[in-house]
Design brief:
The structure is a single chain. By secondary structure, this protein is an alpha/beta fold. It has one domain: Glutaredoxin, CATH 3.40.30.10. Helices cover about 30% and strands about 20% of the residues. The chain has helices at about 40-55, 70-80, 95-100, 105-115, 115-125, 165-175, and strands at about 10-15, 20, 30-35, 60-65, 85-90, 140-145, 150-155. The strands form two sheets. A five-stranded mixed sheet has the order 5-4-3-6-7, with helices on one face. A two-stranded antiparallel ribbon has the order 1-2. The longest helix has 13 residues, at about 40-55. The relative contact order is 0.24.
């Protein structure tokens, strides 16, 4: 996946029990974020931040979160955010592979060491990382997509807590953006 390309179609089950189809976002700018796993402290902190900022982004902006977790596991660990946007299950990693979401042992360690305050903040809020599998090595990936379905920015997290800065998401929601790659 590169900037300037059309976003491939994504069809996955959503927490609300329906099937999500990315074609439903045509005509809206949107962010698609690939997360690590349902109990990831950093991921749940970002879900809360996206839920809190949702209304500021406007009704012509969509947010989609994709986790490599079973739908029931997602319901158990992410519903506390009462997200106003689709949270999807990619339990077989089909789209994580298709979009080449990276894994990194070093990124996992860097996130734990250098983002300790955010980790503690999230864990204090009840987001304790309870999953121990290869999915802990997944690094966040976010795509900013324009109204025509063209990827304008790809943000590859360099560590487990490295998400696209919120000010970039807000700026993209309000104005155009030149394509930016990893």
């Amino acid at each position: 996946m590169r900037t300037g390309q059309n976003l491939p179609r994504i069809i996955l089950p959503s927490l609300d029990g329906r099937e999500f189809d990315s074609d439903s976002l045509r005509g809206k700018k949107h962010i698609i974020t690939f997360f690590r796993f349902a109990t990831c402290s950093f991921c749940n902190l970002r879900l809360a931040e996206l839920s809190n900022i949702h209304d500021r982004l406007g009704e012509n902006f969509g947010i989609v979160g994709i986790f490599p977790s079973e739908i029931e596991h997602l319901r158990k660990h992410t519903n506390k955010h009462a997200s106003k946007f689709p949270v999807l299950s990619d339990c077989d990693l089909k789209y994580h592979r298709k979009f080449r979401v990276k894994k990194s042992v070093l990124g996992m360690i860097k996130g734990m060491v250098f983002r300790m305050p955010a980790l503690w903040k999230s864990m204090k809020a009840g987001n304790v990382p309870l999953e121990f599998s290869s999915r802990v090595l997944i690094m966040p990936l976010s795509l900013l997509v324009d109204e025509k379905g063209i990827v304008q920015e790809i943000y590859c997290g360099k560590d487990e807590g490295d998400h696209i800065p919120m000010d970039r998401v807000v700026a993209f929601s309000k104005a155009g953006s030149e394509p930016v790659g990893c």
